Amino acid sequence: MTAPKYRELADMLRKRIAQSPIGTSTPSERQLAEDTGVSRMTARRAIDELVKEGLLTREVGRGTFVARPTVSVPLQLTSFTEDMRARGHVPSSRLLHLGDVPANEQVATVFSIEVGAPVMLLSRLRMADGVPMAIERSHLRTDVFPGLDRYDFAEESLYRVLIEDYGVRFEAGEQVIRAGIVRDADAESLRVSKGAAVLELVRVSVSRGSVVEWTTSTYPASRFELSARIAPVTVQGSVPRSALRARD
Ligand code: 16G
């Protein structure tokens, strides 16, 4: 079965939007219908869909524009679930992978374990109100958190599980933010075109002096902004610098 016309049109527009700066004006329904040979109703549905996803914004009497980022990611040790709820969005996830992988050199250095030792890899597509927001790849110590694979992380918050079920007390974290290009394999899930710009947030978090989590979160750059609360606090962590710089 082929996708309805308005979906195809929305996909096409989504790709354009991914490459357009915030505030770029988009063609009107009439213009779009003329340009692409679809009915005005189809053009309207496609635009409606993108407005609903927060990619476009309608301004009465002015037109439709590439929206400002709808979600701002705070630079704090909070979870995706909390961040989204705090902003009035309903968080959800699609599980992409959950299982042990052998630690490569990078992972081994981050966790101070032997190369080849099993570590849990949890990969999820994170969504807000059903709209893809990020792909998160989390590495966790299998020996410190045995049985993590019994959880349904499509439903569960990783931080809730770690804190409540495994007694983790996050005491420090470090995060590096870098610009990148979306991996081909991630483009479709994130609903961006291949080659689109992304922001990668690499987080290492520490509990009781040990690194417990190493997560890379990949956000489409066109939809996000980052905000940091500036506080006069010095966090003393023991995070290996290489962990934050390397790519997984
Ligand atoms: C946030 C964290 C990520 C953590 C996840 C847990 C950033 C950049 N990253 O996305 O490191 O694994 O929350 O989310 O903020 P959860 O508890 O909702 O599963």
UniProtKB/TrEMBL annotation:
Keywords: DNA-binding, Transcription, Transcription regulation. One of its GO terms (molecular function) is DNA binding. It comes from the Bacteria. GO terms for biological process: negative regulation of DNA-templated transcription. Pfam families: GntR, UTRA. SMART domains: HTH_GNTR, UTRA. InterPro entries: Bact_HTH_transcr_reg, Chorismate_lyase_/UTRA_dom_sf, Tscrpt_reg_HTH_GntR, UTRA, WH-like_DNA-bd_sf, WH_DNA-bd_sf. This is GntR family transcriptional regulator. It comes from Microbacterium betulae. Residues 3-69 form the HTH gntR-type domain.
